[in-house]
UniProtKB/TrEMBL annotation:
The chain crosses the membrane at residues 26-44, 64-87, 94-113, 133-152. It comes from Nonomuraea polychroma. It is found in: Membrane. It holds the Pfam family DoxX. This is DoxX-like protein. InterPro entries: DoxX. Keywords: Membrane, Transmembrane, Transmembrane helix. One of its GO terms (cellular component) is membrane. The lineage of its organism: Bacteria, Bacillati, Actinomycetota, Actinomycetes, Streptosporangiales.
Length: 156
């Protein structure tokens, strides 16, 4: 066996074990940082590139009961709460339940404002919404782990 082959045979299982042990936690904290960062921006009117879309979506989903600055503050608080639960791991199941509801709201513009987002090719705002599909998938993986699923490397 060559030195490179021997190194590979020792390294791959070690890397696999590390990934099985830590990768979902890295994903959880990364997703939390994204939610906390984008949520914090919304506390400062005029700073978030998603401000207009967020307000319009909350206004539509709440049948006008929440609008303007109030809608924006609700979105900011929800996103920061989700981010903090993901980063810290505390109240994780609660944060994931809030994330599930928030993801419905995050994806709602695809239905509510489809023609605005896709007047032909997707607008930059549409692309911003579409990238949230990856965030939803990450949330599913994190939720699976929080509910007891385990990523275990193959033996042998």
């Amino acid at each position: 066996m060559t030195t490179l082959t021997a190194l590979t045979h020792r390294t791959i299982p070690a890397v696999t074990r590390w990934l099985a042990t830590h990768s979902i936690d890295v994903l959880r904290v990364s997703l939390g940082l994204i939610f906390l960062g984008f949520g914090a921006l919304k506390f400062f009117p005029g700073v978030s590139p998603a401000e207009e879309l967020s307000v319009a979506t909350v206004q539509a989903l709440s049948f006008g009961m929440l609008s303007g600055g109030t809608a924006l503050m609700v979105v900011a608080a929800v996103e920061c709460f989700i981010g903090l639960t993901l980063i810290s791991g505390r109240l994780l199941k609660t944060g994931l339940a809030v994330l599930a509801g928030a993801l419905l709201g995050i994806m709602a513009p695809l239905v509510l404002f489809f023609t605005d987002l896709f007047p032909g090719p997707p607008t930059l705002t549409a692309q911003y919404v579409l990238k949230d599909i990856v965030l939803a998938a990450a949330g599913l993986v994190i939720a699976a782990r929080a509910l007891g699923a385990r990523l275990v490397p193959q033996q042998g």
